[in-house]
C-alpha cells in the first residue's frame, strides 16, 4: 500500500473509533456559571495521598488536592461525550447567539463559490453531510463580542471565559501549592480572579479578543490577551502534494488534545472548502485561516490575477462556514516592498509575497488595504476577528527588526484603529526570526504602534542553524516574548522549513509551545500558574512517581522514559 | 539476549569499528600556530555555488565561502586519524608539558586506592592496558595555567585556544555572511579577534579557565569564560543499575561528536576507577568529575563515614588519572542546612545532600570546607580546575533564589579567593530550577559574589511541568543565562528526573544546548557568531537544500525530515 493511502486509512480508523479520552488519572469536570448552559469544562488531575508518618504496613497519609488544568480538548477529553465526526460537535453557543436576536439564518450561502461548490455532485463524496444553515447579522447590526462589550453587555461567552481562566483554583488550599514568586509583568494587569466584567472591559478596550464566529457555535469560548493566560496556536492544513480530509481532521483532534487554544487551517491543496467544513464542524477551538491562500487557488496560483471580488467572495464563503479569525496581510504597502531588497531572505511570509507580487505587478496598493473598511464590515456581521498579518516579517535573524518590518507594523497600527471603529476584534501578527536580545523591542513597539491590541507571534526563532529543531529554536523566543506580553504563540513544528508536519510533529510542536506559554505565565506572575509546578515538584520530592507522570504535560512519555530505566512497579512508589 | 548485554555488545561493536568520521560535506582542517605542534583542528563546511544568472542549461554561478565551525570531536571527526580505543588518543600536549620542565613522572601512582586497585588481578580484564606514568609538579611548583598566566607566560595552550576561538573567520569576505546585529553583552568584553595575550590576561584575572590536567595531555585546549564562546558540558557515567565501560566510552565519543566542550563522568556504579581511565585516555575534551561520588562508594554509601583521608586519596587518584576539573561542594556550611527546611524540594544536589548529611551527623563544618586549602594545593600540582558545586541549588522553581541558595553563593565567592591565592583555576556552579524572570539576577549575583569567576549552570529549567522534555525547559533558561554571561551550560537530557540517558538522549540534550549556547553568542554579539546563521539563511533563500542540511547542527535529521515530505532529488535543487 502507498504511504499516502496508508496514512489516510490510519486517520480514517482513528476517527471511526474516536472516543472521549481523558488523560491518565484525570477527570473532566464542568463548572457552571450564572445559567445552566454555561458549563465550562476543565481537567482535574487526581493525586495519590502523601505518606506523612506511620509504618510501612500502617502508613499515615494525607490526601492531596486534585489539580485543575486548562483543557482545550473539549468533548474529546470527556469519556461521556458522544462523538461522531460525521455529525460534528454539539453547538454549545447556539442558544446564546439566538437569544441575542440580532442574526438571521440565510436561505442559502451568500458566496457564489460556495453555491457552485454545493451544486457540483462531483464533491458529494467529500462533503460534510449535516451542513448547518449559515447565519449573518441582520442588516445594520454588528454581532462582534467587541460590539457587545462596548455597550456594557456581558455575554455568556465572556462569563464562560472568566470561569475558564480562573480554573476553579480557589479550591486549592495547601499553602505549599499556592506559593508563587511575584512575577515581572512588564505592565500586564493580572488580577487575582478574573471576573466577567474584567473580560468585558478588556474586550471593549481591544486588549483582548474572544474569537467566536456566530457560524461556529461548536467552539468553546476562549480569550486572547496580554492580561490572560498565554495561548498557543497550531497550524494544520493539507497541501497540493499530500494529506487528506481525514488526516486533517485527525490532526485537529490531536491538536486540541495536546493543548492548541486555536487552530489555523492553512490548506492550500485540493478540496480546501470541504476540508475546512469538516474541521470547523468538529472543532472545539476557534479556527483561523489565511483567506488569500484559497483565493490564490481560485486564480490557479497566479498572484497578479487576484481581484477584490474574488477575495471578497472568499471572505464571505469562509465567514459563513464559521472561520473565527482571518489573517489579512493588509499592511504590505507598495512602498515597503523595496525595503526588502537588501535582506538576506527577502519576503518569506507567503501572504506577504503574494501581496508584494500583486502590488508590484499593478503598481498600486493592494485590495486588502484599499478595501479594508469593507473587510471590516464583513467581519462585523459574523464576528470574525482580524489577525493582521506580518507580510514583512524577517525570514532570518539577519533581517530581524529592519525597516520593512517596523514600517509595516506602523500600518498595522493604523488598520487596528480602522478595525476598532467597526468594532471588529483584532490581533497583530509578529515575527519570525529574531535573536534573543532583539525580542523585547518587538513587543514594546507592537504595544505602542498597535495600541495594546493583542500580539500573536510565530516563535520567534532565535537562531537559524538548527533546521529539524525549530520547534525548540522558536520555542525559546516564544517563551521570552510570551513573558514580555505576547498574547498568543503560533507554534512551529520540527518540520518547519523542511516539510509538512505529521501527527507526531504536531504533538512535539505543541508540547514545546505549551512549555513556552506556561513558562511565560509563571514569569509574568499569572495568579495560580505555579500551582501545577509546585504540585509536581512536591510529588517528586515525595517520590510519588504516578503523580509526577500524571501532572506532566505528556504523561505517557514521562512514564515511558522512567520505565526504560526502572521498569519495576516498586520503583514508582519507593 | 538481555537488553543490557545487547547494549554492551552494540557499544563494543561501535568502538571496534570506530573511524574518524566527518560530518557531511565537511572537511577537517588544521590551523597552525607559532610552532608546528600547535595545530588547531576545526571543521569546514563546503558549500555549493549559487546560481546568479545564465540559463537552466548554462547557469552562471558564484562560489560560496566554506564555513568554519568549532569542532569538539578531535580525532573522531578526522578521517585521517588512526583510532584505537585500547591505545587511547595521541597526547598532543605532552611536549608542551615536558618543555616547561616543572613536573616529574612518578614511579607509581600516589593514591593508596589506585595501588590496591592495580594490584588486584581481578580487575585485569577491565583495565586500560597502556597506562601512562602519572606526572606531578615538582615539589614547590605550581603548574596551573593560571600560574603561568599571572607570570606573563603565554603557554601553547593559550595560543591554541586563541586560534580555536577565532575559527579562522577572517577568511570570510562575503558581506552578506559577515553582517551581524550589535549584541547586548551585559558587560562582557568581546574583542573582534582573540589574541593569545587576551587569553592569558583573562586566565590571569580568573575570568576564564583552560581545564588542562598535566595527566590528560590528549585533550585539546579549550577555554571557559564569559568573554569567549559559550560552552556546553555533557554528563555521562554509569550507575549501580546499568551500563558498562564500553557504553560509557561510546557515550563519550558520541558526546564529542555532537558538540560537548567538556564531559563529566558521574559514574556511581562498579569499576568507577577503570571506567574513568578508559574515558580520559580517549577523550579529546576536558573531563570533570564529582569526587565525592566515588569517595561515597568507598564507604559503601554511608555519608557519615566519609573522612578527609579517604576524600584526599580520591582527589589524588583522580588527579593522577587526568581529571581536568573537580566539582567540590565546599560551600555547604552547617548553618545553611536548616535554611532548606521550608523548601518544597529540600536539597536536591546529590553532592549537597551527602555533605549536608555529614555536617548534621558530625555537627561540624565539612572536611571540604575545613581542608579547602589542601584541596587547592593538590589541584595546583596537576592543574586540576575547581568547579565549586552548588549543593544548595533549587530543585523546583518554587525554591529558586532563596536564602539557602544565595548564602552558599557568598561562600563560593570566599572559596574562589582562596583558590585564586593558590592559583587554581576556578568556576562556579549554579542552578537548577529558576523561572525566567529570576534568571538574570542569578548571573548578576554570581558575578559580584565570585569576582567574575566563570559561571557554569545546570539549565536552569524554567518550569517543572514537563518531565520528558527537560532538555527543552532547561534549554530555555540556558539560552537566557548564556546571554546574560554564563560561560558554560551543563546540559540536561530528556531523561532528566526520570532515568539514565542513553545515546540518543545524549544527542538530544547536546543539540538543545548547542542551540542555547549559540543563541547566547549571537545575543551577546560574539564576533562572527552570526556567520553560520547567515550562510544557512542565504542557502535557504536560494533553495540550496544540500547546503541547508550540511550547515545544520544535525544534518542527518534535517535531510530526513525534508525527504519524508519531498524525497525526490529534484526537490533539493529546485
Shape label of chain A: globular
Number of helices of chain A: 21
How much strand of chain A?
5-15%
Count the E strands of chain A: 17
Indicate the structural class of chain A: alpha/beta
Largest sheet of chain A: 8 strands, parallel, barrel
What does this structure look like?
Two copies of one chain form a homodimer. Chain A has 574 residues and is of the alpha/beta class. In chain A, 40% of the residues lie in helices and 12% in strands. Chain A has an eight-stranded parallel barrel with strand order 10-11-12-13-14-15-16-17, surrounded by seven helices. In chain A, strands 1-2-5 form a three-stranded antiparallel beta sheet. In chain A, helix 8 runs parallel beside helix 18 (503-524), helix 15 packs parallel to helix 16 (439-449) and helix 17 packs parallel to helix 18 (503-524). The radius of gyration of chain A is 23 Å and the shape is globular.
Question: Notable features of this structure?
Answer:
homodimer; 574 residues; alpha/beta; eight-stranded parallel β-barrel; 21 helices
Concise summary:
Two copies of one chain form a homodimer. Chain A is an alpha/beta fold.
SSE topology:
The structure is a homodimer of 574-residue chains.
Chain A: H1 3-16, E1 26-32, E2 39-45, E3 50-54, E4 59-62, E5 67-69, H2 94-100, E6 103-105, H3 112-119, E7 135-137, H4 145-150, H5 156-166, H6 175-178, H7 196-205, E8 208-209, E9 224-225, E10 231-236, H8 245-257, E11 262-265, H9 272-281, E12 287-289, H10 291-298, H11 308-321, E13 325-328, H12 350-362, H13 367-370, H14 372-382, E14 385-388, H15 403-421, E15 426-430, H16 439-449, E16 455-458, H17 470-484, E17 488-490, H18 503-524, H19 531-541, H20 545-551, H21 555-565
Parallel strand pairs in A: 10-11, 10-17, 11-12, 12-13, 13-14, 14-15, 15-16, 16-17
Antiparallel strand pairs in A: 1-2, 2-5, 3-4, 6-7, 8-9
Amino acid at each position: 500500500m502507498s504511504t499516502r493511502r496508508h496514512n489516510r486509512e490510519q486517520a480514517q480508523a482513528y476517527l471511526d473509533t474516536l472516543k472521549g479520552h481523558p488523560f491518565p488519572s484525570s477527570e473532566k469536570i464542568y463548572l457552571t456559571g450564572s445559567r445552566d448552559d454555561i458549563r465550562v469544562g476543565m481537567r482535574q488531575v487526581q493525586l495519590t495521598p502523601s505518606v506523612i508518618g506511620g509504618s510501612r504496613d500502617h502508613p499515615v497519609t494525607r490526601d492531596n488536592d486534585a489539580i485543575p488544568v486548562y483543557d482545550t480538548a473539549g468533548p474529546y477529553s470527556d469519556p461521556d461525550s458522544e462523538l461522531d465526526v460525521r455529525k460534528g460537535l454539539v453547538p454549545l453557543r447556539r442558544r446564546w447567539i439566538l437569544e441575542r436576536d440580532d442574526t438571521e439564518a440565510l436561505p442559502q450561502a451568500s458566496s457564489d463559490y460556495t453555491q457552485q461548490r454545493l451544486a457540483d455532485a462531483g464533491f458529494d463524496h467529500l462533503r460534510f453531510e449535516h451542513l448547518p444553515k449559515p447565519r449573518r447579522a441582520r442588516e445594520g447590526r454588528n454581532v462582534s463580542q467587541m460590539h457587545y462589550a462596548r455597550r456594557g453587555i456581558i455575554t455568556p461567552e465572556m462569563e464562560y471565559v472568566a470561569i475558564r481562566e480562573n480554573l476553579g483554583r480557589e479550591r486549592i488550599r495547601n499553602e505549599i501549592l499556592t506559593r508563587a514568586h511575584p512575577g515581572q509583568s512588564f505592565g500586564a494587569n493580572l488580577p487575582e480572579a478574573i471576573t466577567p466584567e474584567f473580560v468585558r472591559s478588556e474586550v471593549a478596550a481591544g486588549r483582548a479578543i474572544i474569537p467566536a464566529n456566530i457560524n461556529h457555535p461548536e467552539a468553546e469560548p476562549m480569550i486572547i490577551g496580554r492580561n490572560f493566560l498565554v495561548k498557543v496556536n497550531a497550524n494544520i492544513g493539507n497541501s497540493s502534494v499530500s494529506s487528506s480530509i481525514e488526516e486533517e481532521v485527525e490532526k485537529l483532534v490531536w491538536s486540541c488534545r495536546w493543548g492548541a487554544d486555536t487552530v489555523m487551517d492553512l490548506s492550500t491543496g485540493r478540496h480546501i472548502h470541504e476540508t475546512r467544513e469538516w474541521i470547523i464542524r468538529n472543532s472545539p477551538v476557534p479556527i483561523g485561516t489565511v483567506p488569500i491562500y484559497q483565493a490564490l487557488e481560485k486564480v490557479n496560483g497566479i498572484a497578479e490575477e487576484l481581484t477584490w471580488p474574488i477575495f471578497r467572495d472568499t471572505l464571505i464563503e469562509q465567514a459563513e462556514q464559521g472561520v473565527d479569525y482571518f489573517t489579512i496581510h493588509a499592511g504590505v504597502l507598495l512602498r515597503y516592498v523595496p525595503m526588502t531588497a537588501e535582506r538576506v531572505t527577502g519576503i518569506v511570509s507567503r501572504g506577504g509575497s503574494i501581496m508584494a507580487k500583486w502590488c508590484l505587478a499593478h503598481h498600486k496598493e493592494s485590495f486588502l488595504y484599499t478595501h479594508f473598511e469593507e473587510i471590516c464590515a464583513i467581519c462585523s456581521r459574523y464576528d470574525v476577528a482580524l489577525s493582521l498579518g506580518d507580510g514583512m516579517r524577517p525570514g532570518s535573524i539577519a533581517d530581524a527588526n529592519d525597516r520593512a518590518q517596523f514600517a509595516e507594523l506602523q500600518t498595522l497600527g493604523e488598520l487596528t484603529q480602522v478595525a476598532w471603529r467597526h468594532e471588529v476584534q483584532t490581533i497583530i501578527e509578529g515575527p519570525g526570526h529574531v535573536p534573543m536580545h532583539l525580542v523585547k523591542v518587538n513587543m514594546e513597539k507592537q504595544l505602542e504602534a498597535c495600541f495594546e491590541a493583542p500580539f500573536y507571534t510565530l516563535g520567534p526563532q532565535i537562531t537559524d542553524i538548527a533546521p529539524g529543531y525549530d520547534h525548540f529554536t522558536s520555542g525559546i523566543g516564544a517563551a521570552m516574548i510570551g513573558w514580555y506580553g505576547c498574547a498568543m504563540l503560533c507554534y512551529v513544528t520540527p518540520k518547519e522549513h523542511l516539510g509538512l508536519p505529521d501527527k507526531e510533529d504536531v504533538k512535539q510542536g505543541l508540547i514545546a509551545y505549551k512549555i513556552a506559554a506556561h513558562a511565560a505565565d509563571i514569569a509574568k506572575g499569572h495568579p495560580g500558574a505555579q500551582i501545577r509546578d509546585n504540585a509536581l515538584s512536591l510529588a517528586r520530592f515525595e517520590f510519588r512517581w504516578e503523580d509526577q507522570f500524571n501532572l506532566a504535560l505528556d504523561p505517557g512519555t514521562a512514564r515511558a522514559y522512567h520505565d526504560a530505566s526502572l521498569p519495576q512497579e516498586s520503583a514508582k512508589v519507593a
